[in-house]
């Protein structure tokens, strides 16, 4: 599968807005640059019309200029090695690639060699999800990671002593990359498959569900998360802007999901829901 690399010139303070919008247009990877933002999308999902409409939507707020080129699969790792620094979450977890040399040891270490998959720990949503995980009890829990990307959250769940983890994504690249990263971290309790909440072979219920996707998918899939979550189980979600938090929380309450914690970072939002018994 070929990808399009989009180089966008935009002021730094508006980059997060574009990430949120582009995620809804099937863009799967993002790198902040001095000029603005690099974004990556499968060729089949690239649309100049969508980008022009996006520019018009925010024309009173900022000007968006961009160039695009086809990016061969074998160029991706080289691109990331130039831009990918280790990420430290809460002084407890370091996320790094195999080519990073580190001096300090941390309680948890996750090795991620990304391809086109979203989830290296650099984006605020991934950082917040890991921070939530570090504050939760995963020991002997069953876990579902929907939209697993690089597999980073599933790997964190196993390192926190979860007993059985299903990692699911709709993208071939993400499934392939998750399998590679699971092996790289010597994880034994993660099963990886391609699919959605409707098509994947899931367990009847899980103790914890992790979903770092985007607003529209999250809202659409809330009834399925509720269906597969045990009573008193936890749903941890991110991938949406803070302005969308009220809509997501209102929708979640329809499915017996109560907000018990949240985090914000760079105008992004994450929420932990607990399912209450009817």
Sequence-ordered SSE layout with sheet pairings:
Layout: E1 3-9, H1 15-23, E2 29-32, E3 36-42, H2 48-57, E4 65-71, H3 76-83, E5 87-89, E6 93-96, E7 108-111, H4 124-134, E8 142-146, H5 152-159, E9 164-169, H6 172-184, E10 190-194, E11 206-212, H7 215-227, E12 229-241, H8 245-253, E13 257-265, E14 268-275
Parallel strand pairs: 6-7, 8-9, 8-11, 9-10, 11-12
Antiparallel strand pairs: 1-3, 1-4, 2-3, 5-6, 12-14, 13-14
**How is the quaternary structure best described?**
single chain
- Indicate the CATH architecture of the largest domain: 3-Layer(aba) Sandwich
Which class of secondary structure composition applies to the elements? alpha/beta
Beta-strand level of the residues, as a percent range? Answer: 25-35%
What is the average per-residue confidence, as pLDDT, rounded to a whole number? 89
Overall CATH class of the largest domain: Alpha Beta
- Count of the domains: 2
Judging from the principal axes of the Cα atoms, what is the shape? globular
Q: What about the largest sheet?
A: 7 strands, mixed
- Helix and strand string, N-terminal first? EHEEHEHEEEHEHEHEEHEHEE
What portion of residues is helical? 25-40%
Q: What is the CATH H-level superfamily of the largest domain?
A: Vaccinia Virus protein VP39
Strand count: 14
The CATH topology label of the largest domain is: Rossmann fold
């Amino acid at each position: 599968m070929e990808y399009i690399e989009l180089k966008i010139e935009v002021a730094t303070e508006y980059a997060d807005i574009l990430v949120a919008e582009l995620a809804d247009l099937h863009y799967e990877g993002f790198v902040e640059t001095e000029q603005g933002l690099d974004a990556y999308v499968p060729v089949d999902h690239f649309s100049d019309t969508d980008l022009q409409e996006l520019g018009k939507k925010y024309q009173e707020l900022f000007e968006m200029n961009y160039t695009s080129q086809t990016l061969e699969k074998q160029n991706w790792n080289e691109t990331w090695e130039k831009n990918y620094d280790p990420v430290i979450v809460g002084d407890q977890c370091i996320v790094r690639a195999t080519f990073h040399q580190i001096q300090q040891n941390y309680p948890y270490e996750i090795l991620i060699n990304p391809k086109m998959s979203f989830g290296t720990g650099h984006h605020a949503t991934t950082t917040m999800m890991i921070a939530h995980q570090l504050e939760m009890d995963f020991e002997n829990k069953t876990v579902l990671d929907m939209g697993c990307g690089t597999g980073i959250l599933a790997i964190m769940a196993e390192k926190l002593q979860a007993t059985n983890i299903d990692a699911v994504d709709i993208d071939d690249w993400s499934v392939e990359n998750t399998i590679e990263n699971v092996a790289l971290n010597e994880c034994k309790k993660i099963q990886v498959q391609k699919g959605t909440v409707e098509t994947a072979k899931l367990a009847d219920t899980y103790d914890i569900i992790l979903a770092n996707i985007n607003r529209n998918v999250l809202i659409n899939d809330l009834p399925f998360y509720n269906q597969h979550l045990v009573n008193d189980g936890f749903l941890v979600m991110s991938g949406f802007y803070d302005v969308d938090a009220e809509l997501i929380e209102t929708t979640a309450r329809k499915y017996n999901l109560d907000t018990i914690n949240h985090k914000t970072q760079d105008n992004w939002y994450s929420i932990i829901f607990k399912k209450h018994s009817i």
